[in-house]
Amino acid sequence: MWYPILGLRRSFPKLFLKNFMESYINLSDLKYKSTLAQETYNLGKEITKQLKVGDVVLFYGDLGAGKTEIIKGICAGLGYKGRVLSPTFQLVREYGIKSRSNSNSKPTSSSKSKSISKIYHIDLYRLEGGADLESLGLEDYFEDKKAVTLIEWADRLRNEDLPKKHKEVKIEIVSEEERMIYFNQ
Fold first, then answer.
1. Rounded to 5 degrees, what angle do the CA atoms 87, 122, 48 make?
2. Are 115 and 101 in contact (CB under 8 A)?
3. pTM listed for this prediction
4. Radius of gyration (C-alpha) of the chain in whole angstroms
5. Beta-bridge partner residues of 131
6. What CATH fold (topology level) applies to the domain 3-184?
């Protein structure tokens, strides 16, 4: 079941929006309409508040929908300071995180969110549909309990190879400037 994500409006005062997002928004039951790459990036930062170690997030959407842009926001929200590139020709990029503490994350009582030390960014675009997880060697990434795994073009995997517990982000291209983004936990 797809749950909608928040629709942000640029007319909201930034302070109100920041407090509203931190206090009242649960990404699992809102809808997000993005008209700028920066909005998509910022949504990625918000999604990090829903992530914990061992999470696998599957991304679906057409070419140019914004999958990599939202992943850039997730990486920044988790504390990664380097450049994020889609691993189209490498299959997997690994990003190390030195510290989870950053201005985008609220302190939590749970140590789970603070123990994320790696991000695996996987891009399956170059694979044929129905790729076999075992032959790709991706199951090891799913089992890393110190990491978050982000998979672009997850529709290229066979359904039986998808992790049983995962989150999904679906991005629909509405127009050249507009995207609808759905989050499913």
1. 110
2. no
3. 0.77
4. 16
5. 157
6. Rossmann fold (3.40.50)
